[in-house]
Amino acid sequence: MLSARSLFQEILDNDESFRLFCSIAASGESQGGWENGRIAALVPESERDLAAKITRHGADEDKHGRIFRALLRKRGLTPVTVPADTDYTMILERHGIGLAHHRLRADRPLTVPDIVTYLAHSRVTEQRASEQMALLRRYFADHPDVGRAVRMISGDEDNHLAYCHEELLRLAAAGHGHAIQRTLRACALAEIRVYRDVSLAVMAHMGRILGWSKATSALLALGIHAVYAYERAAGWRRMVRLRMPERRNALGGPAAAAPEFA
């Protein structure tokens, strides 16, 4: 029977599909680390207290990239080139979501509206990351090869989401509420389209590697389109709500070290 658990298990059990999965994940996390590092360096003077948390966010993303590469090494595998149609982070950037890379490469300080854009983009994408890792944690928290990595990354993503809620609420209280809600809505509606397209692309690549039948591939595509239909109708709203998190000051300390993989 086709299920999320059986699908992930099939991907984990095959070296080539696992190689692609970890390569895609490592690339996205490393890109996020670079982006957060540049944002931390360019934070406006009025938001300097935020710089340490952005730096911690970037350090966590770098750590996740290292973890996925370590999982590959543990199985004697090397990363593959990430297919362009599966590069979630770069596709979002091309759609104008978040801060443009040419802006981050400049040495001009960011503005408070730039910080609003960054945090709104992060709040939406961290919602997705937190949910995806919660799903993996549900099925593979005790897996002998990937369990420790799944548990650590899932906890980090939950911290990142909590941090975004707390900082956006702080900025809303400072008078940026309308800009925050407008930016969150635009990010969420764009993200669900990109997530649909990237999911279809990833499943197509996996299907070729694993030799899925046309019926299996069609069923998975139907499920992806069904998720998009739900998110387009109402599900996107979960990505724009703001509430004070139980985890306060979630990024207020140094990043935890990545686990060692024998």
Q: What brief labels describe this structure?
A:
mainly alpha, Ferritin-like_SF, 0% strand, Ferritin-like domain-containing protein, 262 residues
Provide structural commentary:
- The chain is mostly helical.
- 72% of the residues lie in helices and 0% in strands.
- The chain has eight helices and no strands.
- It is globular and about 55 Å long.
- The protein starts with a helix and ends in a 29-residue tail after the last helix.
- The relative contact order is 0.15.
- The mean pLDDT is 95.
- InterPro entries: Ferritin-like_SF.
- This is Ferritin-like domain-containing protein.
Topology (elements, then pairings):
Blueprint: H1 4-13, H2 15-41, H3 48-74, H4 88-94, H5 101-105, H6 112-140, H7 147-210, H8 214-233
What order do the SSEs take from the amino end to the carboxyl end, as H and E?
HHHHHHHH
Percentage of residues in helical conformation: over 70%
Distance between the termini: 33 Å
Estimate what percentage of residues fall within beta strands.
under 5%
Q: Could you say which overall geometry the principal axes of the C-alpha atoms support?
A: globular
| Biggest β-sheet description | none
Number of strands: 0
Total number of helical segments? 8
Unreliable residue stretches: none
CA gyration radius, whole angstroms: 18 Å
Mean pLDDT value: 95
Structural class: mainly alpha
Protein name: Ferritin-like domain-containing protein
Organism: Streptomyces sp. R39
InterPro entries: Ferritin-like_SF
